[in-house]
Amino acid sequence: MPVMAQSKWRWCSKCQGLWYSAATQNHVGVCPSGPGGHTLQGSGDYALFEERLPLSFHPTLMAQQTWRWCSQCGSLWHPTSALPTGVCPAPGSSGHSEAGSGDYALLNDSSGNMG
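Given the sequence above, the corresponding structure tokens read:
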């Protein structure tokens, strides 16, 4: 079974979060650490995996599922029972919106050899 991944995720050095840089042309989202949106300075091009079970990764890889992309701020967040919509920095927002989001899984390599 092929592993499906979505690239163009970037790390923001201002807020330390991940945001989706390909949502729209020149989209920088809403950074909670200041004006001007997220920055891709110093970031690599990260890929997030679609949450399609069974995930066919090496046994040392563990995946945390149910990550979402926020269409309001462009960031990635993980819903919890205490904060199902998290805290979104977009003006006037009452929480993150998962409208248009995929279901993402983030990987953790317990062997320490993944990167």
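The CA atoms of residues 61 and 109 lie 4 Å apart. Try to locate this feature in the token string yourself.
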